[in-house]
Specification:
three-stranded antiparallel sheet; about 25% strand; about 20% helix
């Protein structure tokens, strides 16, 4: 629903956590690929621009033996980045732009993150408060 409301770039900026995403929008004939801010989730891709074939996978070994892209090098997708592709009328994938950064590592505004007040010496209350805050955030 974030994608429908805000578009892909804003969506990946708003995501909180680790992710590697390949989103295919069949209506707009677009493919979006993105990786989390710190690159916790692995993401590899292979692109044969002549054949118009794109493959993505969380493990490189899932791409190395693809017959349709023989001889094309498996590449590591950079952290904190997204890339957009277009599916043309012949169902071939074309690169719209190289990977773009959606947020710089260390570029987050930590002053806007609400703090949970911890109670000195009350471990149970602290765990309860932290858990409530985590559930509220999600």
């Amino acid at each position: 629903q974030l994608y429908i409301k805000f578009g892909f770039e804003k969506t990946v900026q708003l995501l909180d956590g680790v992710f590697a995403i390949t989103l295919i929008d069949t209506k707009e004939r677009k493919v979006f690929v993105a990786r989390d801010l710190f690159g916790v989730r692995p993401l590899f891709y292979i692109m044969d621009e002549q054949k118009g074939v794109l493959g993505t996978c969380s493990e490189a070994k899932g791409l190395v033996n693809l017959q349709v892209v023989n001889g094309t090098k498996v590449q590591w997708f950079p952290p904190a980045s997204y890339q957009t592709f277009t599916i043309d009328a012949d169902d071939k994938v074309k690169v719209d732009h190289p990977p773009k950064q959606f947020n710089e590592v260390g570029g987050l505004d930590y002053t806007r993150i609400p703090r949970v007040e911890l109670v000195q010496g009350d471990v149970k209350a602290n765990i309860r408060n932290l858990l409530k805050d985590a559930v509220r955030k999600r």
